[in-house]
Write a structure and sequence with these properties.
heterodimer, A: Ubiquitin-like (UB roll), 5-stranded mixed beta sheet, 5 helices, 31% helix, B: Uridine Diphospho-n-acetylenolpyruvylglucosamine Reductase, domain 3, 3-stranded antiparallel beta sheet
């Protein structure tokens, strides 16, 4: 079995994996990082989005071995603090999706937030159109997207006020 | 699964196992594997092959590594190859644009691939390397049919060389919705003011992307190249000639009649915009 050496949410993993193992199954089944959801299995819905070396990737369309040598952030690596998930430690996007009610069933939310992180790193002050374009790879069947767009706008404002658009990815390292 | 770090190693692996399949960003192959449409015994992941990386912008040509992603094209060729940057921007989703590669798009030779029509209009040469060495294939000779590339055993696409052309470029496509959808028609157009040529690439409308030569010649003859202007009716006539070049596909994504209409509209719009630029 091939070896992989990968940093996930700030922790280094050296592992042997089946060549056919998808990254999302490595994250969920091997590491227990079940915050990353599998939605469609066909690379359409984006629920499985994680950051690979800082940019959005669909972890259901990527083999675990392809992640060798990369740094991965999942939804569970976004909050600061010691990992207990206390609301005050949440990432501004997590707070904004909560405050603006950018979800109903919540299934798409982890991917939606990770794609939003990618978007705001590239564009700290996006227009509504740019937000919708930036999230075109993520489907939500509940909200109609309106509150998702509002949440991203709110978080963008928060991050700009904090003056650290480049430091969006906190991690727990 | 092989993960070669250099081109020679990649070619050795591919030559040794004729069933081995090269993997770029995986946006086609992994979806097909998951759907059970393909079964592959040996994947050769090319991400680390150094010779496939990088963009070199020279005075006469731009040289793109086959490992360049759509996101890389968006970021790096906007000024020199605006038609290619526009095509890259219109692909799939941000996640797909971070993963999918130039070489993978050419090598998979999907009917709906976005690079080939642009490379036809840009008169690109595709460098391929294999056991017998390196050769350059004109973009127009690379793809023989859907999924069928003119590569010998053990060969892969390594780089794409595009002569720089002064003048406006356009890329337009239409699909069933705005994003994350395969196109039903694509038109790339280059007005090469230096050579006084019109080059057009039409994709997703026929089994293989093509250049509508008769329409190109007609447009070249009708353009006043000193002023870069033309009779206001020229774009409409050009669109009609492009659409009449060959019969379009009739499939699940669109009827032949719809594609014929879409190609005419896109080609008309592309030429009108290029002349107005």
């Amino acid at each position: 079995m091939p070896d992989i050496d990968v940093r996930i949410n700030g922790i280094r993993y050296q592992d042997h994996v089946e060549p056919r193992l998808l990254l999302v199954h490595y994250l969920r089944d091997r590491l227990g990082l079940t915050g990353t959801n599998v939605g469609c299995d066909t690379s359409n819905c984006g629920a499985c989005t994680v950051l690979v070396d800082g940019t959005g990737a669909k972890s259901c369309t990527m083999l675990a071995v392809q992640a060798d040598g990369t740094e991965i952030t999942t939804i569970q690596g976004l909050a600061g603090g010691e990992g207990a998930g206390a609301p005050e430690d949440w990432h501004p996007l997590q707070k904004a999706f909560n405050a603006e009610h950018g979800l109903q069933c919540g299934y798409c939310t982890p991917g939606m937030i990770m794609s939003s992180v990618d978007l705001l790193q590239r564009n700290p002050d996006p227009t509504e159109d740019e937000i919708r374009h930036g999230l075109e790879g993520n489907l939500c069947r509940c909200t109609g997207y309106q509150n998702i767009v509002k949440a991203v706008q709110a978080a963008a404002g928060e991050l700009r006020a904090a003056g650290a658009p480049g430091a969006v990815v906190g991690g727990q390292s | 699964m092989s993960r070669p770090r250099g081109l020679a190693e990649a070619i050795d692996v591919l030559r040794a196992d004729p069933a081995a399949v090269p993997l770029g960003g995986g946006t086609d192959l992994l979806v097909a594997l998951r759907a059970g449409e393909r079964s592959v015994r040996h994947v050769v992941a090319l991400r680390r092959v150094e010779e496939l990386a990088g963009v070199t912008t020279g005075p006469d040509a731009v040289d793109l590594g086959a490992g360049l992603t759509w996101a890389g094209m968006e970021a790096q060729v906007g000024a020199t190859l605006p038609a290619l940057a526009a095509a890259a921007r219109a692909v799939g989703s941000p996640q797909a644009r971070n993963a999918g590669t130039l070489g993978g798009n050419l090598g998979s030779a999907a009917i709906t691939g976005s690079t080939l029509p642009v490379l036809l209009a840009l008169d690109a040469g595709v460098e391929v390397a294999g056991p017998a060495g390196t050769r350059t294939v004109p973009a127009g000779d690379l793809v023989r049919g859907p999924g069928d590339v003119a590569l010998h055993a053990g060969e892969i696409v390594t780089r794409v060389r595009i002569p720089r052309a002064r003048g406006p470029q356009q890329f337009l496509k239409v699909g069933q919705r705005g994003s994350v959808i395969t196109a039903v028609a694509q038109v790339a157009l280059v007005l090469d003011l230096g050579a006084r040529r019109v080059r057009c690439g039409v994709g997703a409308a026929t089994p293989v992307a093509f250049r509508p030569r008769a329409a190109e010649r007609a447009a070249e003859a009708a353009i006043d190249w000193d002023a870069v202007t033309a009779d206001p009716d020229l774009p409409r006539r050009f669109g009609a000639l492009v659409a009449a070049d060959r019969p379009p596909l009739d499939d699940l994504r669109a009827s032949a009649a719809y594609r014929r209409h879409a190609v005419a509209v896109l080609a008309e719009r592309a030429l009108a915009r290029a002349l107005a630029a």
